[in-house]
Amino acid sequence: MKKKTKKALLITGLSLGAAYAGLSILAKHSRDKQKEDPDLKVQTYEDQGIRLSPKDKTLYERYGKRVVDVGLSFTGLIVLAPVYGLISLAIVLDDPGPVLFTQKRVGENKTYFKLHKFRSMKMSTPHDVPTHLLENPDQYITRVGKILRKYSLDELPQIWDIFVGNITTVGPRPALWNQKDLIAQRDLYYANDVKPGLTGWAQINGRDELEIDVKASLDGEYTRALQKNSLSGFMMDVKCFFKTITSVLHHDGVVEGGTGSLPSNYDQIGFGHDVKINLNKKRKVLITGKDSYIGTSLEKYAYKKYPDSFEIDTLDMKDENWKNYDFSKYDAIFHVAGIAHADVDSIDEDQKKLYYQINCDLAYDCAKKAKEEGVRQFIFMSSMIVYGQKSNLKQSGRITRLTKPEPSNFYGDSKWKADCKIRTLIDKKFNVVTIRPPKIYGKGSKGHNPILSKIAQKTPVIPNVENERSILYIENLCEFVCQVLFSGKGGIFFPQNKELVSTTQIMEEVAKVHNHKVISSSLLSPAVFISSTLPGKVGKLVNKAFGSCAYDPSMSVYPGLDYQVVDFKKSIKLTEGK
Known about the structure:
Strand order of the largest sheet: 6-5-7-8-9-13
Largest sheet: 6 strands, parallel
Number of strands: 14
Number of helices: 17
Helix content: 40-55%
Radius of gyration: 28 Å
């Protein structure tokens, strides 16, 4: 027993000694890096109306959080000292080199600081590059690193960052210095105004499944709760703290805000910043999906508008021969092959399977082949339908960037599954463009509603219903795709016409084009609302025709991209053949 006791004491002593040495190095490393890096300077928000003065902070934010931080971090450093020592030893034995890994991060009021982590990747890994931007990132992770990441043990040195005051226990996860999109989005919610944390509200509400603007919005919710009053801030911190423990126990871990491992997170809503597009750039494009309305329209439009900029080929996807086609000679693939929306109530199970095979599996296989053969950009036509059947007279409100996709039928679900699956292929050499358009219309399109057109041309009176519709004229879509092709970049986009319109406005314009006099009357509105409540096809058709289904216009504006070339009235004239 004595020998075992002596052996245990010896191991503990060595661990504590290693931990003490490691923490000493950590302290010196932190001080030295702050001194030697000329970029570690304060960047302020002057004249932007953001609270900077400590006098405006609540008592909890000014004093309470720091007291909690010091108490928790000091206790953690002492209790976890043996763990620090053992992890340090394991790291060195697995891949000789520094135990600690540092990255320049954005702190409170956009000051820079060095964040510390246990090194989980090999010494040959490029520095200051997020894991998901590395090509085949798994090749860089060490054997010990995989364990550290799985159980979030690589984050333990950040307890030191809490102790010295660079971060706090709970707050928005600190962004990398070069994550301009995330930083810009957080500016909108004043989330850069508070000290970043080890864990935060966004991390326990979706982590890497969230897109950048949604994460920033959640960070904004945290910021508002913290700044509201001391009790609100304290309760929010308590909630985040205990939910984080639950997450770690389930091996979910504390994941970097905006730098997680899922490739889909590299994708972003729109460009997130101004994009300069060279309209004279030569692009070789393959349209996968022969004789489709959108594909054919794009080819005609591109050759007419940019005759010297595009070389376009079309590939039939109806049989297996497409798999033998050479994708390597193209700059981009524009995938339009798919099964269009149908009457979901009259589709049997075999037909449903076909929807998933074509809309999801085929689209993914095509994207995967494109990536493997060196294509740099893949454009996938998703749909507004991924948000469910939003056309309903009983509901109002717009789809915003915070609206979560919730397909309400197999058609929408097949599109949504493809949307998600394709974006897992994203890396720094393969950009994916996901387009979720509203109803697309134009001369000869299936999106043009012939029933409404006929009613508008025949009836003398139409109901005046103040609904909101997002629609997209085919030439506006084609211009959008052309400019995205010129950019070569990726993102999730919601192109639509500049104007939101009502069904009444559409019918009025159709009647005007055909020189038919029509009167819109609010007296017919009650009949429309009553009809919308009827069961069966009648109610569905009325809701589909007169319900609101719209994107918030701000979602469709992308700096540097001017694609809304045809206004609503002119588009109706062109669609109706006048």
